[in-house]
Design a protein that fits this description.
Helix content is 47%, strand content 9%. By secondary structure, it is an alpha/beta fold. The chain has 2 domains: 14-196, no CATH class; 313-473, von Willebrand factor, type A domain (Rossmann fold). It has a 6-stranded mixed sheet with strand order 5-4-3-6-7-8. Helix 1 (14-31) runs parallel beside helix 6 (96-114), helix 6 packs antiparallel against helix 7 and helix 11 crosses helix 12 (230-256). It is globular and about 85 Å long. InterPro entries: LolB (IPR050458), Uncharacterised_CoxE (IPR008912), vWFA_dom_sf (IPR036465). Residues 150-169 have a biased composition (Gly residues). Residues 146-175 are annotated as: Disordered. This is VWA domain-containing protein.
């Protein structure tokens, strides 16, 4: 074996150089407001050389517009950042050119979402950002709106890496990425909404039609609804209604998946043909088989049980409507209306900040309920407790769901009342957050005491609450 000649460089893979150029441009555009001409020209040469459209480098071009002009790229953007299962040998022979192409597409999505700029935002710009954020979510293996606490719930559970090249044991789980990515996307969207002259947009039906309802937009509409009138108010209500209906469709599906209770064997099966258990009927009558006639004589028909145990239950939902809990307020209002539509479930809804409001008369209509809320203000759970406690007529037949971050004014007094509910035999479920992304801060004082009480705080995805309620109501 001979030593390398002094000063001789190792051969550098040109694909690695190209990929580095694209990622250096990505970092430069994210963290430096001034354009780097050298990186721009080098990136353009790379993109053209690998057969991708130069529009990928145009900050004003949305992913939607690129896909419309180049439909073949849609499949590449979908699941772009979800690594495929691979063996260690496969990783060593992965085509370098494909990695350069992936780097160009990943850079486009990340820049369009995270380089949101500054200054006034138009309705069209917000709509384009929301579309690009949807493409990022799709690239991560999620549905559009899923990470931002919007319409869809639950991640795909697949591994994700920033470039889609995570190796064995190094690819982070999507479930751990969502708590970081989801809130960040929500914060960017909320900033864009704040920078938009929303009242002027709502007053113009053409501009309002460009808006896509999201949690950030709905929060702003709910905060500002008392300052709107005429066309602006009508457009705001239409956006809220669209968002409520979309979220309700998703949550209703989650509820329906687990609403079935245990079979009630004390109720005789209904003797109709659709309930006939043919397999059991044949098995039980096999002794009546006549070989000579090749005929089975049936003495008795057997039917399936279909009756379910449906015990009337009372569900009391108490929601903190302070500014930090808007996501939970929207989700739980909709969820309460869905449970209110189930047979033999008596649902009551209370919202509070420093004052409490009994929203039970409107619990079947989450749209009307949300219009009656007043987001913001301080937090005093004792006023809500004063409304909730008289509703507990039969403790063992009652579940109280309390949604808050529990940063309260009268902590000791409120916790004593919650302890009394728990010890009365009612099921008490404290929730720190009920968001689609699964995030939220909970007062550690309350968290520790709920844990000692045997009713730990549930924080995370809304499906956790659905599961808890279905277990109790089944």
């Amino acid at each position: 074996m001979t030593d390398p000649t002094p000063g001789q460089d190792h051969e550098v893979d040109p694909h690695d150089n190209r990929r580095q150029v694209l990622y250096w441009r990505l970092l430069a555009r994210l963290f430096d407001h001034e354009e780097q001409p050298t990186l721009e020209s080098a990136s353009l040469a790379v993109v053209e050389d690998i057969g991708l459209p130069p529009a990928l480098l145009d900050p004003q071009a949305s992913v939607d517009s690129i896909v419309q002009r180049h439909p073949e790229l849609a499949a590449e953007f979908d699941g772009l950042m979800v690594p495929e299962p691979e063996s260690e040998s496969d990783a060593g022979v992965r085509e370098r050119a494909a990695e350069v192409r992936r780097a160009a597409l990943v850079s486009k999505v990340l820049l369009n979402v995270f380089a949101s700029g500054s200054g006034t935002v138009t309705a069209g710009q917000l709509s384009r950002w929301q579309s690009d954020a949807g493409w990022l979510e799709r690239a991560l293996g999620c549905k559009p709106g899923e990470l931002r606490g919007g319409r869809s719930g639950g991640g795909s559970g697949r591994g994700v890496s920033p470039t889609g090249t995570g190796g064995r044991g190094t690819t982070p789980d999507l479930g751990r990425l969502i708590p970081g990515i989801g809130p960040e996307l929500g914060a960017i969207e909320a900033d864009l909404v704040r920078r938009m002259h929303l009242r002027e947009v709502l007053a113009d039906p053409q501009l309002a039609a460009q808006l896509t309802p999201s949690m950030s937009l709905i929060e702003q509409l709910l905060r500002d609804k008392n300052n709107l009138s005429g066309v602006a108010l009508a457009n705001a209500k239409a956006l809220i209604r669209r968002f409520v209906d979309d979220v309700a469709d998703v949550l209703r599906t989650q509820v329906e998946k687990a609403t079935v209770g245990a079979l009630d064997r004390s109720v005789p099966p209904k003797r109709v043909f659709r309930n006939l258990d043919l397999d059991r009927t044949i098995w039980k009558n096999l002794t009546n088989w006549s070989p000579e006639e090749e005929r089975l004589y049936v003495d008795r028909l057997y039917y399936r049980h279909t009756a379910r145990r449906t015990t009337p239950q009372r569900l009391i939902v108490v929601v903190d409507q302070s500014g930090s809990m808007v996501d939970s307020m929207v989700n739980c209002t909709i969820l309460a209306s869905i449970f209110a539509g189930l047979p033999k479930v008596d649902v009551h809804l209370i919202a509070y900040d420093t004052q409490a409001l009994d929203l039970t008369p409107w619990v079947h209509d989450p749209f009307e309920t949300l219009l009656r809320t007043n987001l913001g203000g301080g937090t005093d759970g004792t006023v809500a407790m004063a409304l909730a406690q008289p509703k507990i007529a039969e403790p063992r037949n009652t579940v109280v769901v309390w949604i808050s971050d529990f940063y309260e004014w009268r902590t000791e007094q409120l916790f004593e009342s919650m302890t009394a509910i728990h010890r009365s035999g009612a099921k008490f479920i404290p929730l720190g957050s009920v968001t689609s992304a699964g995030r939220g801060s909970v007062n550690p004082w309350f968290r520790e005491r709920f844990k000692d009480l045997g009713t730990p705080v549930i924080s995370g995805h809304i499906r956790k609450l659905v599961h808890e309620l279905k277990t109790f109501l089944a």
